[in-house]
Amino acid sequence: MRHPARLGIAVALTLATAGCSTAARDGSRADAESATAASVTSCGRPLSFAGPPKRTVALDQTSTETLLELGLQDRMAGTANLKTKIPAQYEAAYAGVPVIAPKIATGEQLRAAGPDFVVAGSADLFTKDRAGTREELAALKVPTFVSAVSCPRRNPAGKTPFELLFSDYENLGEVFGVQERAGRLAAAQRAAVAEARKTAAKVPRGEEQPTVVYLYSVFNGMPYVAGRTGMPSEMSRIIGAKNAFDDVNEDWPEVSWEEVAKRNPDFIVIGDLAERGRPGDSASEKRAAMTGHPVMSKLAAVRDNKILEVPGIELDPSVRSVHALGMLAAGMKDLGHAR
């Protein structure tokens, strides 16, 4: 079976490379620590630091990879919740960071690491039954940082999810005194987004934008797709398409195969989570679920293989999201970007 997402891969890899510094690849130390204090706001909470943190814990893989990309591995006291393999460019740096929990960290595991700063890509990791609330950690004099993408209502109006992601880099750069490195990363990824927009095929005048369903996972036979608040909706806008479930105000809602078929998307994007290892995670399992379904198998997108495969973790906001964006732009252009 033809796999269109692999076509135009040189373009996608160029975009991915644009977002990766040499710091994480060569395992070098972060820039010299700033001796000055820093103040930032994260998800509505003001944070103040007398100096750069020295014992940071990242509660998820996306936060871990952001810190590694900024060359901050020597300031990390722990990481948790690894969903897939760490990319090759981060392996050496990651090897020196203690894993405090293979899955979601508990409050006990977090406190045992003795953190002076805790970073997470999602606010839902800071709950009483997980790492503890932000208020509980603040009472222990441990500041907490949540990605701006996870707090859209607390951010300036009009900022896109990618711009919020880039603001994370810049805020973390301020906290750790690595502003120059963070600025280079944000600038490189802004250029990658611009390149993806330029690479994407144009919809002919008068024609509707093609619709896309992003299939993230299949659990107990039910599909989970991208809703309006997830990064894929922004990716769609950049490449001149429309998320078919843009009317659902969730990141990854559970829907039915019949509802997917009813929306009759022009393209289907599969997030491959094979390395996570749960039933229904791999791209091949998702393809089989669609081709074996009595309704889904009749969709033109399935029959004509208008299907793209991207790494599933890259559909969530992360330092690697520009890679998936590049694959989408190149792959959809190859497939023909109009109905």
From TrEMBL:
Keywords: Signal. The keyword Signal applies. The keyword Transit peptide does not apply. Gene3D superfamilies: Nitrogenase molybdenum iron protein domain. Pfam families: Peripla_BP_2. Residues 1-23 form the signal peptide. InterPro entries: ABC_Transporter_SBP, ABC_transptr_periplasmic_BD. Residues 55-339 form the Fe/B12 periplasmic-binding domain. Belongs to the bacterial solute-binding protein 8 family. This is Iron ABC transporter substrate-binding protein. It comes from Streptosporangium nondiastaticum.
